[in-house]
Amino acid sequence: MLELALHILDIVENSIRAGAGLVRIQVREDEARDLFLLRITDNGHGMSPEEQRKAMDPFYSTKKVRRIGMGLPLLSDAAERSGGKMILKSRPGVGTAISAEFGHRHIDRQPMGDIVSVLMAIIVGNPGIDFIYRHEVQGRIYLLDTRNIKEALEDVPLNHPEVTAFLREQIAEGLRDIGAAV
Amino acid sequence: MAKLKIEDLKKIKEKVQSQTALREGGHRAKVTVHMGTCGIASGAREVLDALMREMEETGVSDVIVTTSGCMGLCSREPLVTVELAGKEPIKYEKMNENKMRQVFKRHVMEGEIQTPFVLAKGAEIVR
Fold it and tell me: Quick check: ipTM above 0.85?
């Protein structure tokens, strides 16, 4: 993965496959503490302690088509390469939380990349699931909650071209306003 | 704190509702972009982005866009499945933004299967 945004997309896809109804995505940029934090929390079906141990093995997967599961190992490796670490917490029936800490200024920390198109992909591709995106840069916060959007839209689908064009613009503007990393 | 302008969304809602009031529901097609780790690493996000932008430009609202996981053919990613209403699904392999735009214009909109990019016909079981 060349961008942190792609890791976010990958981990959120895990949450979706785990049957989550609500997925929280948090990004925190804290230059003073040299920290770039990603956290994805879901209310999917969770993992047993046994599954959690195996999840870090790239040759373990719950998929039936191919016994390879690279998502979490790739994220963990990316965090460690920048002097940080990934922490996985999960409880069966409750959900899973993945935190990845990166060294903000570390030369091997991937750039954030195109987070706007990642958010568009997960929001529009999964209209039945709610997402909360919270991005904090030195105390400035951008917050997006798809539940508010759906409420305002009533029966107009999220994937209507008028809506997607508007959302793309809004998210980009919101992130520019707080000075989010690209 | 930057806020999403809910009033703007309501304006869009009213506009869209007035436009679609005359039309019957139902969808022309469903397009699935496979978003496993393999797909993402090989450019599936760019493919999906190209598709959504194309739909925005042409104002097409009767196509469902969705994502799915890895189907075990990681070396053929990015994969895209196009399912026209009442037709068998067609799987396209090794997609990119340009191929996606072509498939959207020719296959999704005009029903013309883009044979050079086709991997297979029919559905697979994804789990």
Answer: yes
